[in-house]
Amino acid sequence: MRFAARLAAVSLLAAVTTVGMGSAAHADRYRDDQWYLPFLRVAEAHAISQGEGVTVAVIDSGVEGKHPDLTGNVLKGFDTIVGGDGDGWGDDEGHGSSMAGLIAGHGHGAGNKDGVLGMAPKAKVLPIRISTAKGHGGGDAIAIGIDEAVKRGVKIISISESAPSADSSVLIKAVERAHAAGVLVLAAAGNQPKDFYVAAPGRYPGAVAVGAVDQQGTVAPVSVRGDEVQLVAPGVDITSTSRINTATNTQYRRSSGTSPATAITAGLAALVWSKYPQLTADEVLERMTRTAVDKGPAGRDRDYGFGLIDPVAALTAPAAAPSAPVIAPSIEVSLPEIPDLPDTRGAGSGLLLGVGLLVVLLIGGVLVVVAVVVFLVLRKRR
């Protein structure tokens, strides 16, 4: 099922500051531009996990599957909107390709040291296209994309686009179904000033809203605040892959917003799930929130949620202690030994019979005496 394009129905949650930053021949500069790699100690995290065996669905504008930094990591996906290629490949905006690079980019060249390196370079991306440069499918298209991702068995869904401000029951139910199926749904919190509160589907139960921080780890001015925010990640001046523009020989871009922060967080989820495949979606999220660096007021808050993601801590922290069941202490009670009593039922029966006969004889004797006394009295009166 496909939806006709509806202009401005969905917003891309990244402000693009530079598009098409150069060709692959000079790609090493783009790796150097990825300030968030050392900031998050990604090299140390990659020594533990690289996301192998995990598939992340990217619900966005499609993915440039032929990009040299993504070759082999992009599966054949799905289009929910007319105008795509039918399999999620192809991206005339570049936004979806940028998110895919942050999740599963592996670079290129000698030792893959050039180009963009993603958070989980051995993970796979399932592209689900809900928009083109001509229009967007809206909340219903996102819902269809979520259901398709669940159907195809992904573990993680990354959504860096928002639905219209009005709540959609179709989208709400799709998020609920995904969560019930054990899928981790990560969604951008939204960008100011366009968004005033946490965007859909990030604000829906079952989804994880992600905010953005800058190079100092401070919540970015563009990042929407709200009670639904659970995690934050780098989201300012983020360099990543883009669509391949043969006319200008460009294939990289830099952007800011909660979109890249969401993709980076989805990449971390892939690292954790690859390292601990036995975990459930809720347990993966628990590990990420428990190990996040607390920012702002102590505890969870509207700006940072539980805090800034910490990949190394999320991969190395001990498992959460299970809640110990309350068991009542055992009490030993010593009871006195009770001796066996003899069976006296026969003796009791004989005794009862003897007493009965005695009573009958006594009553009979009394009656005889009374009769004699009465007879004598009557005789005397005569």
From TrEMBL:
Stretches assigned to the Peptidase S8/S53 domain: 51-307
Single GO biological process annotation from the record: proteolysis
GO molecular function, one term: serine-type endopeptidase activity
PROSITE patterns (UniProt xref): SUBTILASE, SUBTILASE_ASP
Keywords on record: Hydrolase, Membrane, Protease, Serine protease, Signal, Transmembrane, Transmembrane helix
Ranges that cross the membrane: 351-378
Signal peptide: 1-27
InterPro entries: Peptidase_S8/S53_dom, Peptidase_S8/S53_dom_sf, Peptidase_S8/S53_subtilisin, Peptidase_S8_Asp-AS, Peptidase_S8_subtilisin-rel
Pfam families with a match to the protein in the record: Peptidase_S8
Active site per UniProt: 60 (charge relay system), 95 (charge relay system), 259 (charge relay system)
Protein family per UniProt: Belongs to the peptidase S8 family.
Protein name (Swiss-Prot/TrEMBL): Type VII secretion-associated serine protease
Species annotation: Catellatospora citrea
